């Protein structure tokens, strides 16, 4: 396992999948752990919430990378976080025995960016799904999304964003929708009038999507 700090909520019984939730800017591993109970109310999944590796002077909490411009992560801090998170995911799969094909990467804001980065990378194992709230597919030197390979592997995506988001404009979500659909990824897309937060109105759809993506209800497949 990598050196990232994390929390986890085990399944009740043998886990049927793995849900890794990546927090947003200035938060930590505690932030999205309760969201695991929303997405997996029956506790059938092993839920893990890692902490971003970076602290920034003058900014509270933890971060995945430095933000010189929204949509364009800083090269060095992004790639450092990418490497640490890749090692963390590899360690999780080895420790839990749960395969990437039974794993969903989820996140909010900056955490969605990291979910896209690891989930859409052709050099990494393909997860079952990417759950992205109020984020964007990053533009950064040295990283490119390999959407076609993810689609071929069966990776699915759920994207939700608020039209009144003043931190990450909804056009980022619309760009992600275009990119993912053009590459053949099965996508469920939602917008609402929310600002920069996870809109509770999207909870039921997201929960159903996780259930279907990880085949928790075999009749849903």
Annotation, overall tally of beta strands: 7
CATH architecture title: 3-Layer(aba) Sandwich
Distance between the termini: 33 Å
Note the quaternary state here: single chain
Structural class: alpha/beta
| Content of β-strand | 15-25%
Biggest β-sheet strands, sense, barrel: 7 strands, mixed
Helices and strands in order, then pairings?
Elements: E1 6-9, E2 18-22, H1 33-39, E3 46-50, H2 75-96, E4 103-108, H3 110-119, E5 129-133, H4 147-153, E6 156-162, H5 170-182, E7 186-192, H6 203-213
Parallel strand pairs: 2-3, 2-4, 4-5, 5-6, 6-7
Antiparallel strand pairs: 1-3
Question: Would you mind describing this structure in some detail?
Answer:
It is globular and about 45 Å long. The protein has one domain: Rossmann fold (3-Layer(aba) Sandwich), CATH 3.40.50.1820. Strands 1-3-2-4-5-6-7 form a 7-stranded mixed beta sheet, with helices on both faces. The model has no long low-confidence stretch (mean pLDDT 96). It has helices spanning 33-39, 75-96, 110-119, 147-153, 170-182, 203-213, and strands spanning 6-9, 18-22, 46-50, 103-108, 129-133, 156-162, 186-192. With 221 residues, the chain is α/β, with parallel strands linked by helices. 32% of the residues lie in helices and 18% in strands.
Gist of the model:
This protein has 221 residues and is α/β, with parallel strands linked by helices.
Features:
221 residues, alpha/beta, Rossmann fold, 7-stranded mixed beta sheet, 6 helices, 32% helix
